Amino acid sequence: MRLLRRHGDAPPDRPRLRPKARGGSDRVSNLTLACPSCNRAKGSPTVESFLARRPGRLRRVLAEAGTPLRDAAAVNATRRVLFEELKRTGLPVSGFPVGHLMAGTSVRGFRTGDIVRAVVPSGKRRGVHSGRVAVRASGSFNVQTAGGTVQGVSHRHCRIVQRGDGY
């Protein structure tokens, strides 16, 4: 993001270089920083029309708008590498959806949102199930796998692969 100008101590706004009303987006490359009074003065025109009488400032703002977004590129590259590494483990890699389950409560060392590997040796749920766990106070958990939800898996068969808090 770029700073158009700042007056006073008010926290800066994030106006769009090309407003949404004129086909702009919320992408980082279309955002800049400006004090609230400058943002109100700009209104809905594009930055080109707003700074038409200040060609030096317009050139600086547009030059900065065209620079690569290095931080975003680094985050995306890291995310892609992490995604590929997680895929190699065989675990479901659809993210960590957050529901309204028994969050914040620990049951036998497990919390809703943890990624587990459950090896069930016998019975109706026999097999190896890897995915996100939803805990129950009874110790009988649900495991959300790539193929669906396996209900009623005992805590004795589960091992934590990754905590739901990211560590």
List the helices and strands and how they pair.
Layout: H1 36-42, H2 47-50, H3 55-65, H4 70-89, E1 106-107, E2 110-111, E3 115-120, E4 127-134, E5 140-145, E6 148-154, E7 158-162
Antiparallel strand pairs: 1-2, 3-4, 3-7, 4-5, 5-6
Report on this model:
- With 167 residues, the protein is of the alpha+beta class.
- It has two domains: 1-67, no CATH class; 106-162, SH3 type barrels (Roll).
- It is 25% helix and 22% strand.
- It contains four helices and seven strands.
- The chain has helices at 36-42, 47-50, 55-65, 70-89, and strands at residues 106-107, 110-111, 115-120, 127-134, 140-145, 148-154, 158-162.
- Strands 6-5-4-3-7 form a five-stranded antiparallel beta sheet, with no helix packed on it.
- The chain starts with 35 loop residues before the first helix and ends in a 5-residue tail after the last strand.
- Mean pLDDT is 80; it is low at 96-102.
**Overall helicity:** 25-40%
Broad structural category: alpha+beta
Strand order of the largest sheet: 6-5-4-3-7
What is the count of DSSP helices, taking H or I runs of 4+ residues? 4
Number of domains: 2
Q: How would you classify the quaternary structure? A: single chain
Beta-strand segment tally? 7
Give the integer mean of the pLDDT values: 80
End-to-end Cα distance? 31 Å
What percentage of the residues does DSSP assign to strands (E)? 15-25%
Which consecutive residue ranges, at least 5 long each, have pLDDT under 50?
96-102
Q: What gross morphology would you assign?
A: elongated
Radius of gyration (Å): 25 Å
Largest sheet properties: 5 strands, antiparallel
Helix and strand element order: HHHHEEEEEEE
